[in-house]
Amino acid sequence: MDFVLHAIDTTAPALPRASESPLPVHAVRGQAAYPAHLVDAVRLRDGTALAIRPIRGDDFELELAFVRGLSPRTAYQRLLSPRKLRARELKRLVRIDYARELALIATALVDGTVRQVGVARYAPEPDGSSCDFAIAVADEWQGRGLGEVLLRALVHAASLAGVPVLTGLTLATNHAMRELARKVGFSVHRDAFDATVMQLRLPLAASRAAA
To answer: Rounded mean pLDDT of 71-83?
Structure first.
């Protein structure tokens, strides 16, 4: 099973500083410092122990090894493109501003070495009305429940940060991702302009109000 959603566009120019333009609503409530309250220890269905934590600036080598270890199929579904991420793009993925975006990585001890085995992230859309999210799981870790663990952790973190809506795209053929999204509470609809992709949407503000 493949729990891979498209990656956020890392080639976009950096957003202006807070003094130049207002931050999205959720950023006001976020934390600029490392969000240590999101660090967690979890176990998968088979009992495997993992750590879920926000990514750090010194995680470049972990992220690089993770990306290089993805199969061509998984890498394609991660970006909805055959292109490969450049080193500067990977550096941008680990050096984030926690006040406006987040990346949660799953790490495991494999043969005595800590390895990144999954990642889920969100970043604000230009208009600030929602955040685009992405999730990817290493091929050998797919089908073990890690995708659901990561996505639920990301939804929880986004809700705490005041993100109003999470949105994303996945290939129409990626049935595992579509089912996972529905399980976590996302609506899944075919894109009006591209029949090959599906739109995923979860209003977090409405969920909090209902609760």
So the answer is: 62
